[in-house]
## 1
Amino acid sequence: MELKELQNKIKRFDKERGWNKDWNLKDLSLNLTEEIGELWNLVKWVDVEKQKEIVKKKKEEVSDFVGDALFLILKIANQTDIDAEKEYFQH
Ligand SMILES: [Mg+2]
């Protein structure tokens, strides 16, 4: 699935439920910060080798972070009417 397709899928999902009107960039930003904090808690204060071990042991938690963070980024893109794929390729 392309990134644009995924962004549109999230947009349709929210629209079907009327959630597209719940515009709150501050809450989404805080939620993203929380997700980053969860990843940080897994690997803070340890060296790179230990981080690699932790990622192997806690792959599911790291995978959750990637899914949740990507979802939130795309929701932010939808709410602010930004094409995430286009922005990615512009930088
Ligand atoms: Mg999470």
## 2
Amino acid sequence: MKKMRICTVCESYTLSLSHCQEKTSSAHPLRYNPNDKYAKYRRMAKCSKHS
Ligand SMILES: [Zn+2]
């Protein structure tokens, strides 16, 4: 299975090690971590501070 990578410059998913003349990062699902079950509570707490 090929690893998906993401370009840090244009945020495109790619299989290349570089894009936009920069190294790409491995596209692990940092934005959605199923193990981080407290993430949404942290977000709620962060939001409530803004209100
Ligand atoms: Zn790019």
